[in-house]
Write a structure and sequence with these properties.
about 270 residues; globular
């Protein structure tokens, strides 16, 4: 089930931002959710591989990863030894993959929900932040995957942990079918991954519709629909909190993206005169 939550005022963002629950074992407040922001309510949860290759996505996936590894191995010799590393490094650099990006930070998800479109259209569409519960997603996994998490006292999989379970996508797809997916913590290869608090879900080939999977197999998934009339308000709030392109993309590229948006001049609506 997907719980759709409408956010019409800045105050109502508290339902998204303060979702931590007390862990009585340690007396601390922790969140078990991952978040993904989309700038338009009409956008679906879909991987870059599916967007790019459409019906041929699984036919082309092997050749995309093979060619990426062939040419990228000069930068990272470990790529040849791990399909999971190929996926992560490729996704990080814009390669179409089956990975779907998430963040542990609701603020970072809000950043992507309010910065990933033509700024002239900011007020034309509601934006969205999705949240999924890590424990619930892990509970759907095949037993040996759950056992691996328990063995390592882990919350999410690492590249090495997945490599110990399977070294190829065919076996992964067979075990997951369309009823489960793993959540993967990427190695901290650069500051961008660290700053974005990045995680990935590894979408199996038989999972044709991620949202249908969440609707049918989860009860804690939430879709926060943020009203278009407060998007600029949210955006400016995030800038004051230093949640922006400078932080999401450390370096000159992020700096210029931030300055371009920060100094964007809105066309003000003219006031009607009597």
């Amino acid at each position: 089930m997907i719980d759709i939550i409408k956010i019409n005022t800045i105050e109502e963002l508290s339902t998204l931002l303060y979702a931590q629950e007390e862990d009585k074992r340690i007396g601390r407040f922790r969140s078990s959710y991952l978040f993904r922001g989309l700038p338009n309510e009409s956008y679906s949860l879909v991987t870059s591989l599916k967007r790019n290759c459409k019906a041929k996505q699984h036919e082309l996936e092997k050749s995309i990863l093979r060619n990426f590894t062939k040419y990228a191995a000069i930068e990272d010799s470990e790529l040849k030894n791990s399909i999971w590393r190929q996926l992560i490094i490729g996704q990080h650099h814009g390669l179409p993959t089956r990975l779907l990006d998430w963040s542990y930070s609701p603020m970072m998800a809000l950043h992507f929900a309010t910065s990933g479109e033509d700024l002239a259209n900011m007020e034309n569409n509601n934006c969205v932040v999705w949240s999924i519960d890590i424990n619930e997603i892990n509970g759907l996994l095949p037993k040996r995957y759950r056992d691996k998490l328990n063995e390592r006292s882990a919350y999410l999989f690492t590249v090495d942990m997945l490599g110990e379970l399977t070294e190829n996508l065919e076996k992964y797809d067979s075990e997951m079918a369309d009823k489960a997916m793993t959540l993967l913590e990427p190695p901290s290869i650069d500051q961008r991954i660290i700053n974005q608090y990045s995680y990935f879900s590894v979408v199996p080939s038989q999972m044709k519709d991620i949202e249908r999977f969440l609707e049918e197999h989860t009860t804690k998934t939430k879709k926060y629909v943020i009203d278009k009339n407060i998007k600029w308000r949210v955006r400016d709030m995030l800038d004051q909190m230093n949640i922006n392109e400078r932080i999401a993309y450390p370096g000159l590229d992020g700096l210029t993206l931030w300055l371009k948006r920060h100094d964007y001049v809105k066309l003000m609506k003219s006031k009607r005169t009597i």
